[in-house]
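Backbone geometry:
***
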Amino acid sequence: MSKIEYEMPDNYNEMLAKLLEMIETRKFYDKEINFLQAFANVDELRTAKAKHDKSIDEFEQALALEYEAYQRFRKSELELEQMLHI
């Protein structure tokens, strides 16, 4: 039996787009820090970057939980509708 994937609401898709933007920003910061380390001590930058990375990871986890919860909700809703013949 294949798993049905329900379309997510627009606000989820907007948050997913934001996550992808955040990941691109992380890549940019990585490149900048690597470049700057040849000219300066970047320990503070690395600490700030680690905090930034953690926040992105937390955001991603929250979004994954929202996805799973919404998929379960839609599945149960569909099952009820089918049982009630709505």
Helices lie at 10-36, 43-84. The chain has a mean pLDDT of 94. The radius of gyration is 20 Å.
